[in-house]
Amino acid sequence: MIQSMTGYGKSVAEFQGKKIHAEIKSLNSKALDMATRIAPLYREKEMEIRQLIQKELERGKVEFSLWVEKNDATNAAPINGALVTEYFRQMQALSEQLGLDASNQRNTASDWMRVLVRMPDVTLRTEVEELTDEEWTVAQRVVEEAVENLVNFRKQEGKALAKKFQEKIDNITALLASIEPYEQGRVEKIRQRIVDTLEQQIGSDYDKNRLEQELIYYIEKLDISEEKQRLSNHLRYFIETMNEGRGQGKKLGFIAQEMGREINTTGSKSNQAEMQNIVVRMKDELEQIKEQVLNVM
Asked: Are 217 and 263 in a shared domain?
């Protein structure tokens, strides 16, 4: 069954006090157009992530994000106790040098701490995180689940598209069949109109054999039997292709173009208002198919 190129998926998992999030969404595009935002810790795995996404999605404008949410305890930056002690020692020495009596300035412990924590590099995080195999196993599964959820979303959208296509194809098929009664009766109408014109212009003295020859030539130019047969084949092929599986969007687009050619030719050969009205309705149904085919992967 076909898949839509529109979809959304997300996943989350916990690992050692932090949450790993993956989010992916896609829209229609002629090829795979991927944009990624990956947390620095996992950036070394970007190519692997891209290959995983490309394998499953094939087409579409894809936006992917992978980030980490840390709890307060894990995210707290460590305090450099040695640096704070050195700042305090220097501040005391400076007070003595300037003749300031810190004990008489109402400098409580909380006052000192408010000053010290604002000093440079007191809460500077200096350690560098490294991605372990255990964490990557968890993160990779998060990515896979997000992509899987997007694919499931695409499949659901694909079912809705398939239902819509089937409805439109059935409508065109019914409209094509409705042309036949007008087609059968128009030969006699054409013949009678020509005969009436000839009798009005030159009377009954005209070459009836020549008339038959010209009439046959004229009717052959207006014959739409081949167009009807080719259009029927395209309608059937569209349904067969749609049921082949995913990745049929471009092929369905080509078939829709061929259907349009046959409908247009039928319209150009239709010399009756009723037939032309039917052709207009077929074009309307086909335009709706073409619009939705753009969303098929």
From this structure: yes
Does residue 262 lie in a domain region? yes
Task: Render 89-119 in DSSP notation, one character per residue.
Answer: HHHHHHHHHTT--GGGTT--HHHHHHHHTTS
H/E segment holding residue 64: strand 60-70
Report which secondary-structure segment, H or E, holds 247.
Answer: none
| Domain identity same for 180 and 278 | yes
Q: Return the number of other C-beta atoms located less than 10 Å from residue 291's C-beta.
A: 10
In a domain, 123, yes or no: no
Task: Give the pairing of strands 32-38 and 60-70.
Answer: parallel
Phi then psi for 128, rounded to 5 degrees? -105, 125
Question: Are residues 37 and 139 located together in one domain of the fold?
Answer: yes
Q: Work out how many domains the chain is built from and give that number.
A: 3
Containing domain of residue 49, as a range? 7-74+128-154
pTM: predicted TM-score of the whole model, two decimal places: 0.71
CB 113 within 8 A of CB 85: no
Percent of the residues in the chain that have a pLDDT greater than 90, as a whole number: 52
**Chain segment 142-160, per-residue pLDDT in tens:** 999 999 999 999 999 999 9
* 97 and 217 together in one domain: no
Nearest to 146, CA basis, from 3, 11, 286? 11
Q: How far apart are CA 72 and CA 215, in angstroms?
A: 90
Q: Residue 47, exposed/middle/buried by CB under 10 A (0-12, 13-18, 19+)?
A: exposed
Report d(CA 175, CA 266) in Å as an integer: 12
Instruction: Name the one residue in this structure whose structure tokens are 């989010």.
Output: 23
For residue 228, what are its two tokens?
A: 């009807």
| Overall residue count recorded for the chain in this entry | 297
Helix (H, G, I), strand (E, B) or coil at 77: coil
189-228 pLDDT, tens digit per residue, is 777 777 777 677 666 666 667 767 767 776 777 788 899 9
